[in-house]
Write a structure and sequence with these properties.
Chain B: The chain crosses the membrane at residues 20-49, 61-82, 108-135, 147-163, 169-188, 200-221, 354-378, 390-407, 414-430, 470-488. The complex is a heterodimer of chains A (161) and B (497). Chain A is flat. Chain A is mainly alpha-helical and 161 residues long. In chain A, helix 1 (2-21) runs antiparallel to helix 2 and helix 3 (75-95) runs antiparallel to helix 4. The model of chain A has no long low-confidence stretch (mean pLDDT 81). Chain A has helices spanning 2-21, 36-57, 75-95, 97-115, 123-147. The termini of chain B are far apart. Chain B has helices at residues 2-14, 17-35, 41-47, 57-82, 91-102, 106-139, 144-160, 166-181, 206-225, 243-265, 272-285, 299-314, 316-322, 328-339, 348-351, 353-374, 378-383, 389-408, 411-429, 435-457, 464-467, 469-496, and strands spanning 183-184, 191-192. In chain B, a hairpin with a 6-residue loop joins strand 1 (183-184) and strand 2. Chain B is built from 22 helices and two strands. Chain B has a two-stranded antiparallel ribbon. Classes of the chains: A mainly alpha (161), B mainly alpha (497). Chains A and B meet through helix 1, helix 2, helix 3, helix 4 and helix 5 of A and helix 8, helix 9, helix 18, helix 19 and helix 20 of B.
C-alpha cells in the first residue's frame, strides 16, 4: 500500500513535469520564466516520491504514526457519504441549495449510522432526517441570501419558490 | 505616544455596536467550533469566508479573529473532558487535563485553562500592539531577495519541524506548491496547469483546499475508520480553583507566555513546540512532579494552555507585518485579506491603519468576552457534545458546501472539494501533515513572484541571494533548521552507542 502511494506520487510528479513542458520559458530580462517553478516542483516531488518508495520497500515509511481508528476501512459508510457529496455537487443547481443540501445531509447521516452499525433505512427515519436537513440548510440559505446577499441557487430562477 | 493614540482610535472603531456584535458572534462560533470535534478554526473561518463578499473588511476581520481565539478556548474544554484534542495545540492539555478530570478536578482544570488563556492572550496582545509596528517599520526595508528567503524559511520550518518525517513534510509542501501553480502566472500572465478548463484559470481557492482537507477529509476519515469508537466524557465539576491551585497556576501562565510568544512570531508555525516546551518546563520546576501523568498536575494544564494562546496571538505579527502565515488559520486569514484586495505586509500599517488597529483593539475586547463566555457558561458548551456524531458531521458537510459553493457559485468546485477530501483521507492515513499543503499553496505564488523579482534585480544572477547580508543570513538560518536537528541526533546516537 505504501509502495503504491509512493508510485502514485511519482506518477503525479511525472504529470507535473509533462505539464511544465507545456509552459513557455519566456523569461523577459529576469532570466527566470514561468516554467521554472513547475520544473523545480516536479523534480523535487519525483525525488521525494522515489524516496517514499525506497522507504516503503525497506521497512515502511519512517516514524509513521498510523492513523487512528479501525484497521480496515468501512466502505459502506464511505459510499454513502461519497454519494451525498457527489449528488450534492451534481444537483445543487437544479434542486437549489436547500433541497440539495438536505439530501446531502440525509445521505451522510445514513453513512455515519451505518458506520456505527445502526443503518436505518425505514421511511420514517428518512423523513425525519430530511426535515432536520431542511431545518439546517434553510436558515443558512436565508441568512446568506437575504442578510448577506450572497447568491445561492434557489429552487426556481426567481429565488426559493 | 503614537502607538497608544492609534490603539485608542482602534478601540473607537472596534467598540461600535456593530463591530462588538461581530466580535461577540465570532467568539461564540469560535468556542462552539473548538468544543465540537471534527472542525478547527481554520475550517470554520474557511467555511464562513463567503461573507467577505458583503461584509466590510474591518468587521469581518474582527469576526474571524474572534473565531480564531474562541476555538483555542473551546479546544481545551474537549481536551479536558473528552481527552480528544481538537488541534495539535491542545494535545498536552489533553494529557494532563484529562488525568485531572478523571480524578474529579475537571472544573479546576477548565478554570486554569480559561484564565491562563486570558492572561496569556492579553499579555501577548499588548506585545503585539507594541512590537508589530516596530517589525513593520524594519520590514519596509526588505527587498525581494530577503522576502523570498523569509518564505523559504517558512516553508522549511513548516515542513521540517511540524511533522515527524522531513520527507512526508516535503511531499505535503510540494503538493501544496503544485496546487498553487494552477492558474494564471502572476508575472507573465501565462496559464499553467489549467488543462484548458476555464474553471481553473483563476486558480483553486485556498478555501476549497482547506475545507476539503480538514472538513471533508475529516468526515470521510471518520466514517471510514472511526465509526465504532465510543467516547467517554468526564463529569463536569464546578469551575472553582482553590487558593493553592491559583498559587500553582499563575507562575506557569507567565512562564508559558514567555515561552509561547516568541514561537508565534517566527515563521516556524504551529503551537506544538511551545506547548511541549512549557509542559517540560513545568514538569521540571514543579514541587509535585509525582502528579504529572498520574493524578494530573494543574501546572501541566495551566502552562501549555497559556503557551498555546500566546503563540496563537503572536502569529498575527508575521501575518500583519510580513504577510507570512505561520498556521493554517492565518493562511486562511491571509486569503480573507486578499479577497478585499488587501495584501498584508509592511505597508499594511500605513495603508490600512484603521483596520489593523481596530483588529488589535478587538483582540483585547475578545479576550475579555471569551473569559466571560467560557467560565460560567462552560456547562452550556458541553451540551453541544450531545449532538450525535452522524448529525454533527452531516451538518459540517452542509456548511462545507456553503463555504465552497458560496465563494464562486461553481458546482465544479464541489466536485473538486470531494477529490481534495479523498486526498485528505490518504494524508491522514499515512501521517502526512496537512499544514504544509495550505501554507505551500498560499505562499507558493507569492514566493515565486519574489524569487523572479529578486533574480531580475540581480540581472539574472542567482548570486544576488548571497550578496545581500539579509538574505545570506536567512539562508544560514534555513540550513540550520534543516541540518542542526540531524547533526544533534547523530551526535546523540554516537555518544549513546
Amino acid at each position: 500500500m505504501q509502495t503504491l502511494l509512493g508510485a502514485g506520487l511519482a506518477l503525479l510528479a511525472l504529470l507535473l513535469a509533462w505539464g511544465a513542458s507545456a509552459v513557455s520559458s519566456e523569461a523577459g530580462y529576469g532570466g527566470v520564466g514561468p516554467n521554472f517553478l513547475p520544473w523545480l516542483v516536479s523534480a523535487a516531488l519525483l525525488v521525494c516520491a522515489l524516496l517514499c518508495v525506497l522507504h516503503a520497500l525497506t521497512g515502511g515509511l519512517r516514524d509513521l504514526q498510523a492513523g487512528s481508528g479501525a484497521e480496515r476501512a468501512h466502505w459502506q459508510g464511505f459510499l454513502w457519504v461519497s454519494a451525498a457529496l457527489l449528488l450534492n455537487a451534481l444537483l445543487i443547481t437544479t434542486l437549489g441549495f436547500i433541497l440539495s443540501c438536505a439530501l446531502c445531509f440525509v445521505l451522510s447521516v445514513r453513512g455515519f449510522k451505518s458506520a456505527e452499525g445502526q443503518l436505518d433505512l425505514r421511511l420514517r427515519a428518512w423523513v425525519k432526517d430530511g426535515l432536520i436537513g431542511v431545518a439546517v440548510a434553510a436558515p443558512v440559505f436565508w441568512m446568506f441570501t437575504q442578510l448577506l446577499a450572497i447568491n445561492l441557487p434557489g429552487l426556481t430562477r426567481t429565488g426559493w419558490l | 505616544m503614537e502607538t497608544l493614540d492609534l490603539l485608542m482610535h482602534g478601540f473607537a472603531t472596534a467598540a461600535t455596536p456593530v463591530n462588538l456584535l461581530w466580535a461577540f458572534v465570532g467568539c461564540m462560533i469560535g468556542t462552539a467550533v473548538g468544543v465540537l470535534p471534527g472542525i478547527g478554526p481554520a475550517v470554520a473561518v474557511a467555511m464562513l469566508l463567503p461573507i467577505t463578499v458583503k461584509v466590510e473588511a474591518t468587521a469581518s476581520m474582527i469576526f474571524f479573529a474572534g473565531i480564531y481565539y474562541g476555538a483555542m478556548y473551546g479546544g481545551s474544554t474537549t481536551a479536558i473532558l473528552l481527552n480528544t484534542p481538537g488541534e495539535a495545540g491542545s494535545m498536552v492539555t489533553a494529557m494532563e487535563g484529562n488525568k485531572m478530570a478523571r480524578n474529579g478536578r475537571a472544573g479546576a482544570a477548565l478554570a486554569t485553562a480559561a484564565i491562563g488563556s486570558f492572561v496569556a492572550g492579553s499579555i501577548a496582545t499588548v506585545l503585539v500592539t507594541f512590537f508589530a509596528p516596530l517589525v513593520a517599520r524594519h520590514a519596509v526595508r526588505l527587498g525581494p531577495p530577503e522576502y523570498f528567503m523569509l518564505m523559504v524559511l517558512a516553508f522549511t520550518t513548516v515542513s521540517a519541524v511540524l511533522g515527524k518525517s522531513l520527507l512526508r513534510g516535503m511531499v505535503a509542501l510540494l503538493v501544496g506548491l503544485a496546487l498553487g501553480l494552477i492558474g494564471i502566472d502572476q508575472i507573465t500572465g501565462q496559464a499553467r496547469y489549467t488543462a484548458g478548463m476555464p474553471e481553473l484559470m483563476d486558480g483553486i481557492e485556498v478555501v476549497l483546499i482547506a475545507v476539503g482537507l480538514f472538513a471533508v477529509g475529516e468526515a470521510l476519515y471518520s466514517v471510514m475508520y472511526e465509526g465504532q469508537t465510543e467516547e467517554t466524557q468526564n463529569r463536569l465539576t464546578s469551575t472553582h480553583m482553590t487558593r493553592q491551585e491559583w498559587r500553582r497556576s499563575w507562575p506557569a501562565w507567565l512562564r508559558a507566555t514567555a515561552i509561547g510568544f516568541p514561537f508565534g512570531t517566527v515563521p516556524a508555525g504551529g503551537s506544538e513546540i511551545p506547548t511541549f516546551l512549557s509542559y517540560a518546563t513545568e514538569k521540571k520546576l514543579s514541587r509535585n512532579p509525582q502528579e504529572f501523568g498520574t493524578t494530573g498536575a494543574i501546572e501541566g494544564v495551566a502552562g501549555p494552555e497559556a503557551a498555546n494562546n500566546a503563540a496563537v496571538t503572536a502569529t498575527l505579527i508575521p501575518l500583519l507585518t510580513l504577510g507570512i502565515p505561520t498556521s493554517n488559520t492565518t493562511a486562511i486569514l491571509l486569503g480573507a485579506f486578499q479577497n478585499y484586495g488587501i495584501q498584508p505586509g509592511p505597508q499594511l500599517f500605513d495603508s490600512n491603519a484603521a483596520l489593523v488597529w481596530a483588529l488589535i483593539a478587538s483582540m483585547y475586547i475578545g479576550n475579555v468576552m471569551l473569559l466571560i463566555l467560557n467560565l460560567p457558561l462552560v456547562g452550556l458548551w458541553v451540551k453541544l457534545l450531545n449532538i450525535p456524531k452522524p448529525y454533527l458531521y452531516a451538518g459540517i458537510l452542509v456548511f462545507s458546501t456553503l463555504g465552497v459553493y458560496g465563494m464562486r457559485q461553481s458546482a465544479f468546485d464541489l466536485l473538486l472539494l470531494y477529490a481534495i477530501g479523498l486526498l485528505g483521507v490518504l494524508m491522514r492515513r499515512f501521517d502526512f501533515p496537512a499544514a504544509p499543503v495550505v501554507v505551500g499553496m498560499i505562499l507558493g505564488p507569492l514566493a515565486e513572484t519574489q524569487m523572479r523579482n529578486a533574480v531580475a534585480i540581480g540581472e539574472g544572477k542567482w548570486t544576488i541571494f548571497l550578496e545581500r547580508p539579509g538574505s545570506l543570513g536567512l539562508i544560514v538560518v534555513v540550513l540550520a533548521v534543516l541540518l542542526l536537528p540531524r547533526l544533534l541526533r547523530r551526535r546523540a546516537a554516537r555518544t549513546a552507542g
